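Lecture 7 notes: from sequence to structure.

We start with a single chain of 175 residues. Read the sequence below before looking at the structure.
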Amino acid sequence: MRTSKRRKPSSRQRPGKPGARRVPVLTVTVVLVVGVVAAAILLRGREPGGMGSPMPLPTALGSQPAAVAVATTAGFQALHGRWLRPDGGYILDIRDVDANGAIDAVYLNPRPIAVARADATRSGSTLNVFVELRAPGYPGSTYTLTYDPTRDQLAGIYFQAALPQRFDVVFVRMK
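Now the structure, written as tokens:
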């Protein structure tokens, strides 16, 4: 009679051994959880008010020093035009800026949203724009923007008052 050596079954073939397949599943689960947490931290760090430095709420322009206001409209000419926010198709149409920095503006999403207040100020050579929206779904939402002449764009923070959350935004000039 022939005797054969019995082969020892591998861990995959031992259904009765507890934990034999748990190690790979547990490892994959831990890696996935760590990846999801890391992605959430990175994404939250990019949001204004995220885990990075806290951003203050926009202040009313009336509380800024009087020296910030500009006496002539010549310095505000660069702000005139239709500005598109590419991430959502929102349009800020700056029609005029008076000598005190009051802006005549229309905001479209795609229909008009009431602009409660819009002002332009200058801080040195920097042009700033503040727009406050007042409509259902936009109760006091604001844009605090800075004009970048090199890129010909308005960039800054959108404060969505209904949520309340802050978002980095950019408006590009529509040609």
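The two ends are 94 Å apart (CA to CA). Keep this in mind for problem set 3.
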